[in-house]
Amino acid sequence: MISWLNQNYAKEGAVTTDLVKTALADAYKRLIAPAVERDLRGELTEMAHEQAINVFSKNLRNLLLQPPVRGKMVLGVDPAYRTGCKWAVVDQTGKLLEVGVVYPTPPQQRIEEAEQEFARVIKKYEIDVIAIGNGTASRETEQFVAGLIQKLNKTGLNLAYVIVSEAGASVYSASNLAIKEFPDLDVSQRSAVSIARRLQDPLAELVKIEPKAIGVGQYQHDVPAKQLNESLAKVVESAVNYVGVDLNTASAALLSYVSGINATVAENIVHYREKNGAFRNRKQLSDVPRLGPKAFEQCAGFLRINDGDNLLDSTPIHPESYELTYKLLELLQVDLAEVGTDALRSKLSGLDVEETAEKLGAGVPTLRDIIEALLRPGRDPRDDLPQPVFRTDVLSIEDLKPGMQLKGVVRNVVDFGAFVDIGVKNDGLVHISELSEKYVKNPLDVVAVGDVVTVRVLSVDAEKGRIALSMKGIPQED
User: For domain 74-216, which CATH number applies: 3.30.450.20, 3.40.50.150, 3.30.420.140, 1.10.287.80?
Assistant: First the structure.
């Protein structure tokens, strides 16, 4: 660089040549080089921030859109050592029924007492699934629960357990929202409730936590907080609106992420519901204080009312399109009560959408959306995803041998690969080079947080707790 500067800016043989060369050398060393370095470093840092935020955003969306486990009585367990494992029972709707604590882990190891207490709770509430948080003492608690399940299933029960990510549970438990929701519980008991509910409906529970506290990214503490928060807030709002919200069961925290609804209006909806009972139709939203026509126009299509006055209120069809929907049903000569039946599906599947849109004077995209909603009323897009891995026994790292094939759940995706929970204490790493037979530029092109995958054990370092996995050549379920 110095030679280039001398060649272009210093005239050889002149009286001032040496002075100019000295000035150029000083300018380069003291001014030009540091400025270029700062610019390059700034550009690289900005690119790294964008990539880190992009990875976090995609992982968060996939985590939020994990499939719910409906219709199950769940026993949630927040593992710990000295202070014991806090547990909470929630019913099929997420209502808290009972809480308590047992001490099956070191140093107490009161296993028999814990087994008696869990057996009592399981039989009393007819528990279907035990959800165990994946934090401290998780594997010791898992071993205890797996042993108990083996015993109880011999008596005719059909129990299983699931390891649930408890990222951010402690943040939620100490928040004002949790205190307001469960004022009589301590922090760790609220965590047990959150763990149980995360299995039943991950989206409804995770929206209560500040997105950046969920921790499914990389280098998140090194990126600009404002930029990260804005990006993650958009992800949460997008996920909530994509799934839709049950107007009669959603919390204020969940409602506040619906388009057109802020925190105040969300609280007003809950208060209206508590005072007047369940909403029977979407029109009643106009009676909610501070929810004006513009807000109604934005939010109505994302709010669902099941078993209400109008079947269309349980679909993503906006009230503005109800008239068009009625015209379509009239054209097909079917009644609203036939929505979701095989007869209507048969007629809709053979429909020429463009020709019908012209007849009805409607836009083709709008008509396609209406048809999709009528084909599958009450559909939750998360139901199409694979369910969590239910287990009845437990593995230790010593049980793993190279070549074994196991099912696991993707817990995190980073630039160099994916971490997979295969049922042992430490998550295994599928390096980017082991994700596919084909070249993989970005791991997110192959896997996502929450995916259920089949992996092969490559190597195990029990001393360091490292497990290398591969997905090469293994057919994966869609």
Answer: 3.30.420.140
Domain residue limits, the chain = 2-61, 74-216, 240-382, 397-470
Lowest mean pLDDT among 72-81, 163-172, 214-223, 357-366: 214-223
What whole-number distance in Å separates Cα of residue 430 and Cα of residue 419?
6
Token couple for 453: 């995958």
Residue 399 φ/ψ region, left for φ over 0, alpha for ψ in the -120 to 50 degree band, beta for the rest: alpha
User: Per-residue pLDDT tens for 290-303?
Assistant: 999 999 999 999 99
Distance between CA atoms of 280 and 472, rounded to whole angstroms? 52
Asked if residue 202 has a cis previous peptide bond (ω within 30° of 0), the answer is no
pLDDT tens-digit map of 67-97: 899 889 999 999 999 999 999 999 998 899 9
377 Cβ contact list (under 8 Å, min separation 6):
311, 314, 315, 339, 340
Q: What is the CATH T-level fold of the domain 240-382, as seen in this structure?
A: DNA polymerase; domain 1 (1.10.150)
Architecture of domain 397-470: Beta Barrel (2.40)
- Reference 239, options 29, 380, 76; nearest CA is 380
Read off the pLDDT band of 289 (50, 70, 90): very high
431-464, pLDDT tens digit by residue? Answer: 999 999 999 999 999 999 988 899 999 999 988 8
pTM of the model: 0.80
Instruction: Give the side-chain half-sphere CA count within 13 A for 81.
Output: 6
